[in-house]
């Protein structure tokens, strides 16, 4: 839902992406974000991941780049979108999703909400 709500011009209203492919492209965007976050955890970088969500401007650059590149590669490979355009669309969707997530987590942190044993 997060990706779909932030897809807007980059996916939903984009004439380059066929109407029949839009739901699949949104799923690809979601899976790209999840894959990058999952890789962080699997590689023992949970603390870095927590910092990513806790301090939005400091730790996000490398992770966002990974998400953008992964999604752009999928757009190019599976949907035939030229690399430059794929990167542009990917950057729009992924950065908006991350910004929305940071906003929500900031609200949760103010309320003292925790994820597992980690206070955010």
List the helices and strands and how they pair.
Elements: H1 2-11, H2 22-42, H3 46-54, H4 56-79, H5 83-110, E1 114-115, E2 118-119
Antiparallel strand pairs: 1-2
Helix pairs in contact: 1-2, 1-5, 2-4, 3-4, 4-5
Please summarize what this structure is.
With 120 residues, this protein is mainly α.
How would you describe the overall organization of this protein?
It is a single chain. This protein has 120 residues and is mostly helical. It is built from 5 helices and 2 strands, in the order αααααββ. It has one domain. It has helices spanning 2-11, 22-42, 46-54, 56-79, 83-110; strands spanning 114-115, 118-119. Strands 1-2 form a two-stranded antiparallel ribbon. α1 runs antiparallel to α5. Residues 116-120 have low confidence and may be disordered.
Question: Tell me about the biggest sheet?
Answer: 2 strands, antiparallel
Order of helices and strands: HHHHHEE
* Derived structural class: mainly alpha
Strand content: under 5%
Spatial strand arrangement across the major sheet: 1-2
Question: If you average the pLDDT, what whole number results?
Answer: 78
As residue ranges, the low-confidence spans are 116-120
Principal-axes geometry comes out as elongated
Gap between N and C termini: 22 Å
* Number of helices, where a helix is a run of at least 4 consecutive DSSP H or I residues: 5
Secondary structure: helix percent: over 70%
Number of domain units: 1
């Amino acid at each position: 839902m997060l990706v779909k709500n932030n897809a807007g011009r980059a996916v939903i209203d984009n004439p380059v992406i066929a109407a029949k492919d839009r739901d699949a492209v949104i799923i690809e965007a979601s899976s790209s974000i999840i894959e990058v976050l999952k890789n962080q955890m699997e590689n023992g970088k949970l603390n870095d991941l927590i910092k990513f969500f806790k301090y939005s401007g400091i730790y996000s650059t490398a992770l966002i780049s990974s998400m953008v590149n992964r999604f752009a590669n999928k757009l190019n490979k599976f949907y035939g979108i030229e690399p430059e355009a794929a990167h542009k669309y990917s950057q729009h969707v992924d950065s908006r999703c991350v910004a929305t997530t940071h906003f929500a987590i900031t609200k949760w942190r103010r309320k003292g909400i925790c994820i597992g044993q980690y206070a955010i």
